[in-house]
Amino acid sequence: PQIPTLTTLYHLNQLSPSPTPHPGATSRYNDKISLIRTDITRLAVDSIVNAANTSLLGGGGVDGAIHRAAGPQLLEECRGLNGCDTGNAKITDAHQLPSRKVIHAVGPVYHIQKAKGKHTSLLQSCYTQSLDLASQHDCKSIAFSALSTGVYGYPSDEAAEVAIAAVKGWLEADEERAGTMERIIFCSFMEKDERAYERHIPQFFPPA
Ligand code: AR6
């Protein structure tokens, strides 16, 4: 697929990792959930979530962009992780990226997992495992790429619904833990993904 040109519609060069987002740090929706369309490698948040593969040794798409921006030390660190199962996630430092941590989540390949009826639960667990890791590593902010919606072929609309529902479920499961996660960002790159989030976020997080 063609690499999209980055639009500047909701573009942010920096997103403050502090509890109070700096002016313009898009609080679309509410004080906890944000939607941004930008290159995730530019976000200065506590953690960004990479759409990795089971090898954790890099690839194309957002994975390639993250490895390029983080520098070769990220690959070095990933080599020590022994890969990661589909539906799970592992955490590393962010090296030369402006974020503090990178969470490498392995989303389902849509057509393979749909045939087994596992696509939804595997995508959902990527989101909850990533949030667990972020929380265990004292991350107060997390930015998710639209896992599986590129090469792995997960339809954007379905994926956005699963992602948002998973985040909501995680927040509701443990109020104390939820309180420590100050900002959860859905970072889309292509318009189709952004539109999908726009359709579904208000269903799960009604505007105040
Ligand atoms: N910032 C934010 N989002 C991005 C960026 C970026 N710089 N670049 C692409 N996206 P994909 P997958 C979006 O294909 O479907 C890799 O080779 C993109 O528009 O990166 O989970 C891995 O190594 C899409 O919405 O990941 C795996 O082998 C989303 O990121 C495989 O691809 C995910 O698209 C994983 O496939």
Shape designation: globular
Number of helices: 7
Task: Say how many strands there are.
Answer: 6
- Point out poorly predicted stretches: 1-27
Biggest sheet architecture:
6 strands, mixed
Bound molecules: ligand AR6
Major sheet strand order: 1-6-5-2-4-3
Percent of residues in beta strands?
A: 15-25%
Radius of gyration, whole Å? 15 Å
Structural class: alpha/beta
The average pLDDT score comes to 86
Distance between the termini: 38 Å
Listing every helix as H and every strand as E from the N terminus to the C terminus, the arrangement reads EEHHEEHHEHHEH
Helix content: 25-40%
Give me some keywords for this one:
alpha/beta; 38% helix; disordered N terminus; binds ligand AR6; 208 residues; six-stranded mixed sheet; Macro domain-containing protein
Describe the structure.
This is Macro domain-containing protein. Residues 20-205 form the Macro domain. The chain is α/β, with parallel strands linked by helices. It is 38% helix and 16% strand. It has helices at 61-70, 72-79, 110-115, 119-136, 156-173, 175-180, 191-204, and strands at residues 33-37, 47-52, 89-93, 101-106, 141-145, 183-188. The longest helix has 18 residues, at 119-136. It is globular and about 40 Å long. The N and C termini lie far apart (38 Å). The model is unreliable at 1-27 (pLDDT under 50).
Short recap of the structure:
This protein is an alpha/beta fold.
Question: Which helices and strands, and how do they pair?
Answer:
Blueprint: E1 33-37, E2 47-52, H1 61-70, H2 72-79, E3 89-93, E4 101-106, H3 110-115, H4 119-136, E5 141-145, H5 156-173, H6 175-180, E6 183-188, H7 191-204
Parallel strand pairs: 1-6, 2-4, 2-5, 5-6
Antiparallel strand pairs: 3-4
Helix pairs in contact: 4-5, 5-7
The structure holds ligand AR6.
Ligand AR6 binds next to strand 2 and helix 1.
